UniProtKB/TrEMBL annotation:
Species of provenance: Maritimibacter alkaliphilus HTCC2654
Annotated coiled-coil segments of the chain: 263-290
SUPFAM superfamilies xrefs: CheY-like, Nucleotide cyclase
Taxonomic classification: Bacteria, Pseudomonadati, Pseudomonadota, Alphaproteobacteria, Rhodobacterales
The Response regulatory domain, residue ranges: 4-119
Positions of the GGDEF domain: 317-452
Keyword Transport: no
Name of the protein this chain belongs to: diguanylate cyclase
Gene Ontology cellular-component annotations: plasma membrane
InterPro entries (UniProt xref): CheY-like_superfamily, Diguanylate_Cyclase, GGDEF_dom, Nucleotide_cyclase, Rev_trsase/Diguanyl_cyclase, Sig_transdc_resp-reg_receiver
GO molecular function, one term: diguanylate cyclase activity
Class of this enzyme: transferase
Reaction(s) this enzyme catalyzes, per UniProt: 2 GTP = 3',3'-c-di-GMP + 2 diphosphate
PROSITE patterns recorded: GGDEF (PS50887), RESPONSE_REGULATORY (PS50110)
Keywords assigned: Coiled coil, Phosphoprotein
Length: 456
């Protein structure tokens, strides 16, 4: 199911073109021709993203500023387009709160990739906000940001000779500590930064995209900002960067002023998101955590499902519930001892968590039973994820204590999909439990999906 998009443009030809480009992804599109109409639709529709023409009546930048000034709309990503080669206007749009400012009406590939990127980041942030009241009480109230430490920026320039110039210009404009690196050395611990600025060179675009993918895959850099620069105004490879995990793409002649305008907003949001993430991880008390594995427990899962039930009534976003059970776990305890059994549980939990996205839930709900909830996922994506979870446990034995023989374990998984309603999570749980029974009866170490239907 696509997102809810508002197109704010007084030219009917532009609105038609954008709507056609959004059709393939099945986004729900509404249109606005005046600022009053835009505000009214934004308040009523609660969109996932708003697209605004820079020449929108009253000014696209002014419209963005008005949206961001409202607490109920400030979190909605705004993309402004049509700035042409006016760098001053692009910087003004970013300073007004726009997540992106494009030179022209975006093509289909860029538009869809950008929307996927923005909606994914918003979903991750909303998930952190959703977990705040579940993990603590009044002590979780938003604290003042306080002093912001000096940012660390790692720069991968297009050539070694251009590196010192980039470093000095960025350092002077931002006040940050700037480190130069190559595609290879950027992955070294001493090059780790809060943000990475990577030049996409036309002769070797794969190196930049590969570096973005590596940064996103590594735990130490997974939450760092990644900004790509391409010297070309139109660059299909740069468009792909959003799907690889880039936070922004700067086009045309390198400008430290535009770079800093982008980084300032992104760094502010990153610091806030990091604080939210730290609260979730550090302040969840033992009542909501399994003390052995560190995963959430059944009590947390019940509260999570209850909250998700309320939200789903408004969003109707698809989800999947998985129940996972370690096969023949009693025999592991009997043969290797309970300490070894604990090691298996801890390692299983680690592998499950490493395989899932941040927006997904994984909880230990019983002795050797686990619950996984996949948010905003299709049936095919959920099946692939379930198979990856199964393989993550089955493919590699768990190292035993004291040099004993490694312990081979497997998982049986039952899965239920909910594409239209989750008004009754217990019914979805029952479907997944029945599917798990089928997996156990069918030989174990397999994934079974319950017949897809709405959990009314």
């Amino acid at each position: 199911m696509g997102g809810r998009i508002i197109i704010a443009d007084d030219l009917v030809t532009d609105r038609i073109a954008l709507k056609a480009r959004l059709a393939a992804a099945r986004h729900s599109v509404t249109q606005a021709r005046t600022r009053d109409e835009l505000l009214a639709r934004a308040i009523a529709d609660k969109p996932d993203v708003i697209l605004i023409d820079i020449d929108f009546p009253g000014g696209g930048i002014a419209a963005c500023r008005a949206l961001k000034a409202r607490p109920d709309l400030a979190e909605v990503p705004v993309v402004i387009y049509g700035a042409a080669d006016d760098r001053v206007a692009r910087i003004a749009a970013l300073e007004a709160g726009a997540e992106e400012c494009l030179t022209d009406l975006p093509g289909e590939a860029l538009l869809l990739a950008l929307l996927r990127n923005l909606t994914r980041k918003r979903a991750e942030r909303e998930e952190l906000l959703r977990r705040q009241p579940l993990g603590a009480a009044d002590a979780f109230a938003e604290a003042s940001a306080g002093f912001a430490p000096r940012a660390r920026i790692t720069v991968v320039p297009p050539t070694a000779t251009e590196g010192p110039g980039w470093r000095s210009r960025i350092a002077a404009a931002s006040g940050a500590k700037v480190t130069l690196a190559t595609s290879a050395t950027a992955l070294e611990p001493e090059a780790e930064g809060d943000a990475y600025v990577i030049a996409l060179t036309p002769g070797n675009p794969g190196a930049a995209l590969g570096l973005v993918a590596e940064l996103r895959a590594r735990p130490s850099t997974r939450h760092a900002l990644v900004l790509l620069h391409t010297p070309r105004d139109r660059d299909d490879t740069a468009d792909m960067a959003f799907d690889f995990g880039a936070d922004a793409v700067m086009r045309g002649t390198f400008s430290s002023a535009e770079l800093v305008a982008r980084l300032d907003r992104l760094l502010d949001r990153k610091r806030e998101t990091d604080r939210l993430r730290a609260r979730v991880e550090d302040q969840l008390d033992e009542a909501l955590r399994d003390p052995l594995t560190g995963l959430f427990n059944r009590r947390y899962a019940d509260g999570y499902l209850a909250r998700m039930q309320k939200e789903h009534g408004a969003t109707r976003r698809s989800c999947a519930m998985l129940l996972l059970d370690l096969d023949h776990f009693k025999s592991v305890n009997d043969r290797f001892g309970h300490l070894a059994g604990d090691d298996v549980l801890v390692e299983t939990a680690r592998r499950l968590k490493a395989t899932l996205r941040e927006i997904d839930l994984v909880a230990r709900i019983g002795g050797e039973e686990f619950l996984v909830v996949l948010r905003d996922t299709t049936g095919d994506e959920a099946r692939l994820t379930a198979e990856r979870l199964r393989a993550a446990v089955a493919d590699t034995p768990v190292d035993a204590r004291d040099g004993q023989t490694p312990i081979s374990v497997t998982l049986s998984i039952g899965m239920a999909l909910c594409s239209n309603s989750i008004s009754n999570p217990r019914e979805l749980w029952d479907q997944a439990d029945r599917a798990l029974y089928v997996s156990k009866a069918g030989g174990r170490n397999i994934v079974t999906c319950a017949p897809e239907r709405s959990a009314a």
